[in-house]
Every structure is written in structure tokens, then in C-alpha cells.
Amino acid sequence: MTGYRAPLADFNFLFDELVDLEAIAGLGNFDIVSRDLVRQIVEEAGRFASEVLAPLNGSGDREGVKFQDGNVEMPEGFKAAYRQFVEAGWNNVSVAEAEGGQGLPRVLSVVLEEIFMAANKAFNMCPSLTLGAIEAISKAATPELKGKYLPKLVSGEWSGTMNLTEPQAGSDVGALRCRAETQEDGTFRLFGQKIYITFGEHDLSENIVHLVLARLPDAPAGVKGISLFLVPKYLVGDDGTANTRNDVHCISVEHKLGTHASPTCVMSYGDNEGAVGYLVGEPNRGLQAMFVMMNSARLTVGMEGIALSERAYQQALEFARERVQGTSVARKGEPVAIIQHPDVKRMLLTMKSQIEAMRATALAIAQAIDFSNHHSDPAVREKNRAFADFMTPIFKGWATETGIELTGTAIQIHGGCGYIEETGVAQHVRDSYIGTIYEGTTGIQSIDLVGRKLMMDQGQAMKAVLADMRACEADLASLGDKVAKMRSGFSAAVNALEEAAASIQQQFGQNPEDAFAVSVPFLRLAGLVIGGWQMCRSLVAAWQSDTYRENKFVTSNFYCSHVLPQALALRSVVVAGAATVSEVAESDF
Amino acid sequence: MTGYRAPLADFNFLFDELVDLEAIAGLGNFDIVSRDLVRQIVEEAGRFASEVLAPLNGSGDREGVKFQDGNVEMPEGFKAAYRQFVEAGWNNVSVAEAEGGQGLPRVLSVVLEEIFMAANKAFNMCPSLTLGAIEAISKAATPELKGKYLPKLVSGEWSGTMNLTEPQAGSDVGALRCRAETQEDGTFRLFGQKIYITFGEHDLSENIVHLVLARLPDAPAGVKGISLFLVPKYLVGDDGTANTRNDVHCISVEHKLGTHASPTCVMSYGDNEGAVGYLVGEPNRGLQAMFVMMNSARLTVGMEGIALSERAYQQALEFARERVQGTSVARKGEPVAIIQHPDVKRMLLTMKSQIEAMRATALAIAQAIDFSNHHSDPAVREKNRAFADFMTPIFKGWATETGIELTGTAIQIHGGCGYIEETGVAQHVRDSYIGTIYEGTTGIQSIDLVGRKLMMDQGQAMKAVLADMRACEADLASLGDKVAKMRSGFSAAVNALEEAAASIQQQFGQNPEDAFAVSVPFLRLAGLVIGGWQMCRSLVAAWQSDTYRENKFVTSNFYCSHVLPQALALRSVVVAGAATVSEVAESDF
């Protein structure tokens, strides 16, 4: 088991060369943003993650959570770590100052998310979901509800959850049946069962504030009849005290492949008199409010793919440097650490290059979110919102799928030792497999991408991205012969993406089933090429720098040679593969 | 949790249309082979697997093995199942009749391996390793040793193990230190520790016969100083009784990611007076004898990839048929089972088509092994041996890597439910990750392929395979327009393989490090294209058949459109990707 160190060099590169910190500081909302301060915060977060969170990652996995009589006991050490986390204010860095948070830009909070998740993904699920609850309440709740609930959610004394799924309503949220009965005092009573509720019950915080989707008595069927309710574990009196137990209970926790230290609860609402709930936002418009949380959560889930890959990479790299096995191919007969073996080097580069590509992409999205929220020019806001909306499903699907592959590569680098749980690397793989499922499976992301994002504004978002890629291609050309091969690889990949996008738009127009038969390959293609774009962008930016040039040359060069060629294969699948799915009937299986 | 049914339709297709059963029957060794008998045996094995082994797969995983005071207790039900397995004779179907086995051809035993591993991989590790021990003893031991040990290994009363790995000697077997001291009576005393010994200790059989690699006192360093010893748990007296405990003990069992019901033991030899051992084969030639076992075991490990994928596929298919979620894209608004969703169909086809491709490949290798062992014409024997030797590392690496991907796809089809251990599909993923490691990692397979198999006989084996692929391409052309697209896809993939093979041979000649930097992508490429070849071969064979034509059209068509295009990407990596690895120094990470 190895520790974790925040990859400061790459973060520094991104904030020095790729992120426009000056412009973000100039937005007015983040006047405290300076390069030095950013470095300081990231380093401090890294220290906290290494010292407090990372040591509990393996023990939390082995111990898991204990469920008894409706209560969930967290693993040893988690309570103390949560207290320290909250006292240091790491829980609300991204919350607006007006709400009592620290108002850091998304471009910084996304990096902190990576760090905390790499150190201890299960732990980080709790504050991460609380942020979603804060966001929804801030946006849609009445001033009274805000006054009662926000301050303690922001302080971390209380935590929050999202309650969507029911046994018959997973990806199909519209099928949910949980019902809310109107009361004379304007409150509601909720009845029903919710499953897969992360941190639905636990002992880290004093109170738990559930945001619950349910149907009002007169609600229309489907997604247009869903309302959002705030249902606290303990009801809050007018004096702010929370002592009365509400009729919402955890009735079991799931035994999962991974993230054992994150309780996944079955929640029962209204077994007795009904769970008291308060409407958040307008009746029957709950899904819109919830989507606010989900969109933001999808970027966060994508970060898991990076975080777990980075953690696994650090462990694999350390192992590869220490493990002596076999002899050098180049210097015959000399025993060497396995990092000297070409295939091990290839595997490490496969990890490192894709981690850097995903990370640069995440920051580009986060920066666009900051601009879209705070820029003074509505046109700039709109352009950035379109970019972030377009990129989010791609990033979420691509980064989580890649996370599974890369954590698996770390097992392979460890050989037999990787299969032994004590080594700790298998945990990262187990923890990864949920990322491609929650907040919408990869298939759901691809439907959002192809059915909505690719089509919005007549494909403007896609066109804008392609134009930026072409500009990057031209920048790359200016770097000379050393990058000529890289440029031609990137160029071919951009062509592949452009052709595939045109083809899938056409297919969608003719027969949506065809487009959805190849929408996941299209998402993968888009992710891969966007990653290549960010690596080329990184190289162009690093070219002028003494510090980062060689590092970015190694990884972008590898990415263009070993990863990007897949774009050609995926293009072919997207353009010509739909029929071999659409023509197949259920009886053919 | 679902059951398992042997995929009889595909087995029947293979034996009806693709395997040359008449020729195998004509070899003289397998005179009992007829189409009816083969069907009967496969059906019976399927029934046994479904009824006896499959129900213990999940419970064995949850319960795991218990280690106490040097003893290993197997999970509930395993002992009774083993007794039934042995009584039915499933343990020795592939052992020659002369040795007391049933002398079935490899082409049939490989199918039985798939069936038993799909039903319960952990269970099957025990008889599978025993077969390896039987093979090594048959080939290399003295008549006296054979007389004492073979009959009870063949009957299943005793089981066998392979002991290679030591903490400092994994892939690098030559680094092993376990030593054997010569005794005056011609026996040896062994001292040392072995790790990762599958079924090194357990309570299924009365005695355990360890085959152990160790060094004689005067042995040269490295792989040329390794000898093979037979070391029984209980020493066998001249009357055949085995009562005296030998000085070999299990000192712990590993806690692994998967295959929990297969004990992975740390074995200590000679803690006291030394473990009595008997030399098998010539001194210092132990590795050759062990390689006999390993080569055969690599085909078996490849079968795990198929078996676990098939089991996961059956479970995913059942779930996809039953789970109603969302509405039809084609018939708007109508609730449908998720198998109707294009992306779910795509995932199921991704599994089914690759499983069929791997299975057809396995049978082609197995048939070649039968011919290579028993054909009357030495030239035919030699040609088939070269084919099997060439194909084995490709198949092992490709099938096990694909097994990880496809079992993961089954989780994705299940959505959130797939992440819950009770569902049972996550076990298949956990069980898969060891396949790419033991009997040589994928990297080791690729070194064998590129450094040895591709180069042997001036690349004749590769050339012969390419020639067969070209012939298949021509056959495909004769099927007409319906397969035109498929043919062009296959054609492009064969070209890609041919170019990549030429390139990697050239690179190996100039600088082996370069070749090894892209040897795994080359292995994947070879596996993919070989799979395509077998699917096209299958389609050609099925074309005349009323029974199989549509089925094989669906899967071969999908394979050519969705899987084979990766060949283009991998070709590019092999041809142009080495420098981006070779130029990277350890300090660049």
C-alpha cells in the first residue's frame, strides 16, 4: 500500500500555462485568485489529502460500513477526518461567499475534487453530495428553507443527499412512484422507497438533508409530474434546533464491488405517519432543479476517473521503480527494475498521458463554467455555457470508462501482486466501476450527447470545438519538424471526429435508433480526440517553457502515437456500424 | 444471481461445421469420436455444470476458503461436488487411455474446460492443475514415480500443483532460489518458499502432489540451473499407502480480488528436516518439463476469458430481457425491456460476437494440437505444432484481456444493480483479472510471440496464417453482395496485420527494445484479426446451413463492423509507436 501525493507539477503547469487565471480573477467574483494563492491552496489540499484522507482509503475499504438498527457506523477514523475536513473549510470551497462558502472558482475546486477523491474517494462522496444539495437549495428553495438549512450544510455540520432512484426507476427517472401528500400547513408527507442513496445514513454529521423526487397527488405521468422535496432526517424547529426525528429511515445498505466506505442506502419514506417534506422550487418542475445538481455532479464523477487513475498510476510507478525482475533487453543480462522493460514503460505512459489529457480537459470545462456563470458579456457567458454543456457528457463518459481501463493497467503492472487485495491497487479498480454508472450510464451520456448536445443550435457547439481544434493544429505546425508526426496524427483524428459527427447527425435525422446504436463509440471518439486536442494545446503552451516542455512532449507524443489512432477505428464504427445493430432482433440473441 | 447453461448451439455449430471430427476420429487415438457422442458428452457436461458446479459459484465466492493451522477448508459444498466430479470422470477426460484416462481429443476437452470454468472457475482450478501435473509426470518421470503417483492423480483421489513463483522470482523464473539437497538414497530434500500456489493446500483430495522447481547444489545460475521435483504432501510407501506427512506446509493463503474459492497458498518447503522430493526428468532441465505444463495451461487460461465472458453474457442477456426501463425509440412512449435499446443491443453483440470469435479460435488451436500429437504424417504434425505454438500466446493474451472487457460490459448492462455484489455479475469481473497475469502476463505472451514465435522458421507460422486468411477472404467473396462490406472490413484488417507483422519483424531485427515497446499492441492486433478470420470462416461454413446461417451472419457482421476496425488503429501503433516509448527515460515519469 502506498500513499498519495497530489501531482503538483501537472497542476502547476495547468494553472501557469493553460488556465486563464487573470481572466478568471477579472470576473469580479473571485478577486482573491492569484497564481500564488492557487498554488498555496492546491499544496495545502494535497498535504491534507496525503496526511488525513489517504491513510484511511485502504482501511475504510477493508472495514466497510456497519449497518445496525437503522444506523450506519462509518469505518474507524472517518469521523475525525470529517471533522478536520470541515474545520479546514475544504467542504465549501466552491460555495459562493454570499452563501457562507469560500467562493473559489470551479477551475480550482475541480482540482481539489481530484485530490480528495484520489486520496479517498469513498470519504469524498459525502461532502460532494452535500455540495449538490447546497446548489439545488440555493437555486430553488424559499428564503425560509434557505435560512433554516443552508448555513449548516455549508458549515458541514449537516450533510445532504440526492434521492432519485427507485427499484423500477433507474435511468428512467420518469417512472418513479414515491408520492407526496399535501398537508394543510403547506408542508408535505412523503411515502415511498428510494434505493442507491449515497450517504443516505451515516454518523459523520448531526443531521442529513435529503433532496427527494416525488409525485404530488395530481401530478401528470412521467417526467413532467415530478417535484423536488427537502426532507431532513431531523426536523428543524424555528429556533434552529434539530431534535425531532422525521419518518425517513435507512432500512439496509448495499454490499458493493467497491467504495465500501461510502454507505449506499435503501431509504424508506413514511413507514409510519409520513416523512415531513418541503417543496423546493415549483410543483412538477423537480427534475429541472435536480438536473442542476446532476450536471454539476457529472463533471465531478468524471473527476473520479482521473483521480482513481492518478492514484493507481502513482502506485504502479512506485512498484515499477522498486520491483527488480528480469534483465535489460538493451544491456543484456543486467537485472533491472521493471520500469526498464519496454512494455512496462508503455503501460505507464498509457496511464500518464491519458490522465494528463483528461485533466486538461476537465480544467477547460471548469474554466468555461466560471466564465458562463460570471462573465460580464452575455455572449461570452452563452458561448461558454454551450461549450460546458456539450463537453460534460463526453467528459463524464470518456473519463470514467478510461478510469476503469487505466486502474486495470495498474494491476497488470503489478503482476500477481496486483491481484492480492493487501497491495491496494485492486481497490482502485473496484472503486472505478461505479463511475460509468451513476449520474447516468455511459449509454445515457451518449444519448444526451447525440440526441441533445450535438443537435442544439444546429450543431454550433460541436462546430466551435472543431474550429478550436483546427486552430490548435495550426499552432502545432508552427513548432516545427519535431512535432510533424504528432501533428499529422492529430490532424487525422480531428478529421475522423468531424466526419463521424456529420454522419451521426445525419443518421439521427433519418432514424434515431441508428444514431443511438453507435452513440457510445461516438462519445468515446469525441473524448479521445478532445483529449488529443488538450494534449496538443498543452504542448503548444509548454513549448515556450523551460519547466514543462520535455514533460509535455513525452506525454503528448505518446498520446498521439498510441491513443489517438483509435479515433480512426471509432470513426469507422460510427459511420458504418449502425446497421449491424439495428437489424438485429431480440430473438437473434 | 442466475444460473448457467452450456451454449450448446454454438458448440454444435463448431462440431458440425468447423471442426474436422472425421479427421480427428481417423487419427487412431480417438476412435470413439463421433458427432453424436460429442454432442452427448457436451450436453452431459453442461448438465453437470449447471446442476452441480454453477450453484456453488456465488456461495464459494462469498464464503471463500478458511485457513487455520496449516489447513485449508474449502467452502460449503465443494467437497461433495469434487467427489461427484471425479466419480463422473470429468477430471481425466483428456488424459490418455494408456494412463487411465478417457483419451478424448483436445478439441473436446477444451470445450469441457470452458463449460466447467463458466460454471465455477475457482472449483475448476483444482482438476485443471492436476492435469498439468499428470502431463509433466507422464512425460518426464521414471516408471517407478509414474507407477506410484499417476493412477491416483488420474482417478482424482489425489490432486496436483505447479510450484514456480518465489517472492523474488515471478515472470523471471530464473531468479528462483529454492534448493534441493542430494540424499544418499537418490531422493532429495527441498528447502525454500513458494508463493501463489493454487490449491497448494485444501481438503478436496487425500493427497497433494506438488511439482516444484528448485536448484541442485551444483546448478548453474539462471534458467539453466533449474530442476523439477515431485514433492508429495504425504509420502507414498511401497505398498501405495500415503500416511507419512512430508515437510511441506501451507503457511498462509492470499486474500484476492477474485477466485475466492480457489486457495492461493504460500508454501514452505523444509522448515524442519527438509521436504522429501524426487527428481522428474533430467537435472537442470526442469524448466523444459515445466514448460510442457505451462504451454498447455496457457490455452486453458485463455479459455477462462471465454468462460467468464459467456457466464456474464448469459446473466446480462437475461437481465436485459427482463428489466423494463425507458421507452422505445422506435415506438415512442411504449415501455420496453432494455434489450430493445440500441446501446444495450450493441453491448450484448459486443459480448456475443467476441465470445464466438474466441471460441472458434480456441477450437482451431485445439484441433491443431490433436493433429500435432497424433497425425501419422510428420509433416502434418509439424505444421500443426507450429500453428498451435504460434497461436497460443496470442490467444492467451487476447482472450484474457477481452474477458476483462466483456465481463465489465455485463456490469454496464446491469446499471447500478451490476455494482451490487448480490447480483453476482461483479464476481465475473473480479475473477477475470487474474487471467491476464498467471501463466505469463500479457507482456510475457507478447515477448514470446514477437521474440520467438514470429521469428521461428523465418516467420513461416505467421505466413501460413496469413495465407489461410487470404483463402478465407476469397471464400467470403463467393457468398455474394450481402457480405461485401464484411469482406472489405476483413480484408483491411488482414492487410493491417500483415503490415504490422512485417514492421515488427524489422524492428526486432534492428532493436528488440523497439519491438517490445509495441509487442502487446501487436498481440492484440493479431488476436483481433484472427478472431475476425474465425468469424468469417464460421460464416462461410454456416452459409450452407439452415440452422446456423442467420446466427453467424449477425455476429460475424457485427464483429467486422464494430470490432475489426480496431485493427487499423493497432497497426498504426505497431508501425509508428515504438519511438515514443523507447525515447522515454525513467526520469521522465
Keywords:
homodimer; 589 residues; alpha+beta; Butyryl-CoA Dehydrogenase, subunit A, domain 2; eight-stranded mixed β-sheet; two-stranded antiparallel sheet; 14 strands
Explain what the structure shows.
Chain A is an alpha+beta fold and 589 residues long. Among the domains of chain A are: 143-148 and 156-284, Beta Barrel (Butyryl-CoA Dehydrogenase, subunit A, domain 2), CATH 2.40.110; 447-582, no CATH class. The first copy, chain A, is 57% helix and 12% strand. The first copy, chain A, has helices at 8-18, 21-25, 35-53, 55-63, 78-87, 106-140, 143-155, 286-322, 342-374, 378-414, 425-432, 442-453, 460-477, 484-510, 512-517, 519-543, 549-563, 566-576, 579-582, and strands at residues 66-68, 71-73, 158-163, 179-182, 188-198, 207-214, 227-232, 234-236, 242-245, 248-253, 264-269, 275-280, 324-327, 335-337. In chain A, the strands form 4 sheets. In chain A, strands 3, 4, 5, 6, 7, 10, 11 and 12 form an 8-stranded mixed sheet that branches. In chain A, strands 1-2 form a two-stranded antiparallel ribbon. In chain A, α1 packs across α16, α12 (442-453) crosses α16 (519-543) and α13 packs parallel to α16. The longest helix of chain A has 37 residues, at 286-322. Chain A starts with 7 loop residues before the first helix and ends in a 7-residue tail after the last helix. The mean pLDDT of chain A is 95. The interface between A and B is large, with 97 and 97 residues.
